[in-house]
Amino acid sequence: MSIKNKYIGILLTATMMLLSACSSDDPEAQTVTTGEEPVGKVVQLVSYASPFTDKELSHRAAPAGFSAYTPDKTTSMGIYMLLSEGWTTPKEEKIIYNNNKWHAFFEVTADKTYTVYGYMPKTGEMSSTLVKSTADAATLTITGIKPVTTDDICIITGAKDTDEGLKEGQFSWYWPISAGDENYKIHLLMDHLYAAALFSLKTDTEYALLRTIKLKTMTLSANKGSVNATISLTHNETGASPISNVTYTASGTSDAVVIFNSDEGTALDKSVPLPVNACFAPTLSANLTLVSTYDVYDSKGNLIRQNCTATNKLPNLEANRGQRVQVNLTVTPTYLYVLSDPDLDNPTIKIDN
């Protein structure tokens, strides 16, 4: 079983309009202007993801070896830009990725220092609140999260105006008035809110000589319908993770998400597994069910059975936040050595680990 961790770093380069109306001598004044339409110019967002590392390795102060990470669909970031610690009612702002561009729905004031919190992606019914208990501590509560999802939901764990010296636990960002062309950059580090599963599917070697399996859908379900997460964040100067505690509260009866879909079906190989990824609330590690739908073809390519269904109640994956568990699955006849025609045409899927 492979259990791994991942960090994500985000480089946000934004071109914004500087409005004099945002300036104020009052340190308690709100300086982020919001609206229902994007403001300023298009935001240029370039993000990077580091590779997974073994869970046994120590928590890293800053990610290394980033590779490019770009959303492959419309997505949104929920972000808080706090000008002063006196903000008693912080408001969640948003940046949306659409048509290969990022669009900001807020504006900031130059020559000011902001404290940055947030999460991404923000999807569906998700919303959040932020409470600053002290200058160095904040509690971010996210509600309406799907218990199982294909989205890797991450929390901002560090922010800076440059990547030089960027560390977890430091959330301050400064936009100098000397920016000139009104460009600004926000560099972010992010860490996972959920655990992940990598389902690795292949066909039994002997069975593959007689039948071809084309996977059409995979659906992962949990015994709860919604999750709220409360994240405690504390500023530090050492580069340690600022997440001191995460509490998950699950409610509702059940929820399911399609984690793989192929209208024509994808043929499974006997030696090269098909990878399918999903994320889930760690507290639901022992309450997950996988349903797979597939077609069966004979050795000549004739469709024998259509829309076969295999249901697997998963063992306890025992995964924590930020960990990924690999689940190996093999399509095989119920009685491999009997190989009767009915059995060949109605295989099942077994969990190998």
Overview of this structure, please?
There is one protein chain. The strands form 5 sheets. Strands 2, 4, 6, 7, 8, 9, 11, 15, 16 and 17 form a 10-stranded antiparallel beta sheet that branches. Strands 1, 5, 14, 18, 23, 26 and 27 form a 7-stranded mixed beta sheet that branches. The protein has a 4-stranded antiparallel beta sheet with strand order 12-13-20-21, with no helix packed on it. The chain is mostly beta strands. It has 2 helices and 27 strands. A hairpin with a 4-residue loop joins strand 24 and strand 25. The chain is 3% helix and 53% strand. It has helices at residues 205-208, 341-345; strands spanning 3-5, 7-15, 33-34, 43-49, 53-54, 67-69, 75-82, 93-98, 101-104, 106-107, 112-120, 127-132, 137-145, 148-149, 154-160, 172-175, 183-192, 195-203, 211-222, 226-234, 243-251, 255-267, 274-280, 288-298, 303-313, 324-332, 348-351. It is elongated.
Could you name the key traits of this structure?
353 residues, ten-stranded antiparallel beta sheet
Could you outline the blueprint of secondary structure elements for this entry?
Elements: E1 3-5, E2 7-15, E3 33-34, E4 43-49, E5 53-54, E6 67-69, E7 75-82, E8 93-98, E9 101-104, E10 106-107, E11 112-120, E12 127-132, E13 137-145, E14 148-149, E15 154-160, E16 172-175, E17 183-192, E18 195-203, H1 205-208, E19 211-222, E20 226-234, E21 243-251, E22 255-267, E23 274-280, E24 288-298, E25 303-313, E26 324-332, H2 341-345, E27 348-351
Parallel strand pairs: 18-26
Antiparallel strand pairs: 1-5, 1-26, 2-4, 2-17, 3-10, 4-6, 7-8, 7-11, 8-9, 11-15, 11-16, 12-13, 13-20, 14-23, 15-17, 18-23, 19-22, 19-24, 20-21, 24-25, 26-27
